[in-house]
Amino acid sequence: MDQIMDAAEKLKLLGDKTRLTILCLLKDREWCVCELVEVLSISQPGISQHMRKLKSHGIVNEARRGQWVYYSLRVQDKPYIQSVLEYMPGTTDTLSLLNKKEPGQICK
Amino acid sequence: MDQIMDAAEKLKLLGDKTRLTILCLLKDREWCVCELVEVLSISQPGISQHMRKLKSHGIVNEARRGQWVYYSLRVQDKPYIQSVLEYMPGTTDTLSLLNKKEPGQICK
DNA sequence: ATAGTATATAAGCATATGATTATATTGTAT
DNA sequence: ATACAATATAATCATATGCTTATATACTAT
Q1: Whole-angstrom Cα distance, residue B3 to residue B55?
Q2: Which of A41, A52, A98, B59 is most exposed by smallest CB count within 10 Å?
Q3: Domain for residue B108, yes or no?
Q4: For chain A, what is the domain count?
C-alpha cells in the first residue's frame, strides 16, 4: 500500500492549479519566490507554503543565494511525475497562458 | 490556463489513495461496484461517489449489465494519466498490497 | 406484485486545504 | 546599529473533500 499511498500524496500535490503552474514554470529554469509572486496572483506567504510542501516531498530543490531562495525541479527520481510534466507546457508557454512576461531580473 | 487547470483537476482525482487504488485495480480488467466494495474498506456509497467523479472527468467508462454496473479505464486519450498508471501496480499486485484475494465471481 | 440485490443520491459531519493578514527571521547595505 | 528587502512561520477562515448513514432507484426472480 505504501507505494500507492506515496504516489497519491505526490499526485495530490500536482493536483492544485497553482502548484502545477509553478512546476510548469520550473521546467526550464529555477525561480525565486519573488518572481513567482510577480507572475502568479497569490501572496508571498501563499507561494512560500506551496514551496514548502513541494520541498517536503522532495519535488523541488531549494537553494539560498543572498537574500533570494531559488527553487528548481527535482524529478529525475520520480518517473511518473516527470512524465506528467512532459505533457505540460514549459516556462515560456506557461507565461503566455498567464498573460505575463518574464519577471524583471530582480524583484522590487 | 485551461490546459493546466484541466490537468490539475484530473491529477487531483488521482491524488486520493482510494481512487488511485481503484484505477490500479482497473488496469487489467473491468470491475463492478460490489467487487470494489468487497476489496476496499469503504462503504458502497463511498465507492459510488468516487466512480461518479472519475466518470464525470471521463477517466472511466460505465457499462450497466443486468443489475451490475461495470467500470473500466478510459485513458487512451489522456497520455499523462496513462503514463502515471504505467508506473503503478496492476490488478494482481494491487490486490496483494491490499492483502485481498480476487473477489468471488458474483457478490452476495 | 413482491422481495431481494446492486447501485445511486441525499444529507450530515469531521477534517483537510488553499488562501489571507500579521509577524518573525534572514540577509544586504549604509 | 539601522533600515530595507526577501522569505518563512503563525494564526485564522471559508471552502472542499471523503466518509458515513439513510433513503431512493433500477434490475431480477419468483
Answers
A1: 19
A2: A41
A3: no
A4: 1
